[in-house]
Amino acid sequence: MSLRFPYRQFPTIRPVVALAGRMQRPRPIIAVAIIGPAGTVSLDAMIDTGAGDTVFPEHVAASIGVDLMNAPVGMSSGVATRVVSVRYAEVMLRIADSHEQREWKTWVGFIPGSFRRPLLGFAGFLQYFTATFHGDREEVELAINGLYPGT
Predict the structure, then answer these.
(1) HSE-up of 94 (CA within 13 Å, CB side)?
(2) Cys-Cys link to 124, which of 72, 105, 106, 139 (CB 3.0-4.6 A)?
(3) Using CA atoms, how far apart are residues 23 and 26, in angstroms rounded to an integer?
(4) What is the full DSSP assignment across 45-66?
């Protein structure tokens, strides 16, 4: 069985030429719960095949009781952005569609400052799923693969 998520539609100021003049852009954004020792936070996050890591803002770590004081540190950068320090911690992630739910323990990165939405990248997320992006239906389908460590 697989989970299916319709793309979310985001209005644009001008018609999108590459989308035949549509006034919105579809994006693979899904609800994800991040669970730590002191609680759970639910956020909308973008599935990003170009992101090496799954990342959340640092304030989310504090909200769920994750101490980043002695966390392993790495570096990350996005398109046209500066390099930032990433602190990693092990958490539980949960996603669900209208038919099923998946939950697993994984390492994610926490980045200082705020940004539009968390990214569900390869490490911590896409490594556990076979993702099919149905452009014609504007839907993403996630099927667990052999690496999936959860329930």
Answers:
(1) 12
(2) 106
(3) 10
(4) EEE-TT-SB-EEEHHHHHHTT-
Distance from C-alpha of 15 to C-alpha of 51, rounded to nearest angstrom: 27
How far apart (Å, rounded) are the C-alpha atoms in residues 16 and 6?
A: 20
List helix spans (H) across 16-128: 58-63
DSSP symbol at 123 = B
Say what the pTM is.
Answer: 0.94
Q: Are 106 and 54 within 8 A, CB to CB?
A: yes
pLDDT in tens, the chain (151 residues): 799 999 999 999 999 999 999 999 999 999 999 999 999 999 999 999 999 999 999 999 999 999 999 999 998 876 556 788 899 999 999 999 999 999 999 999 999 987 789 999 999 999 999 999 999 999 999 999 999 998 7
Contact predicate 76/55, CB 8 Å = yes
Q: Hey, what are 62's tokens?
A: 């504090």
Decide if 26 contacts 79 (C-beta within 8 A).
no
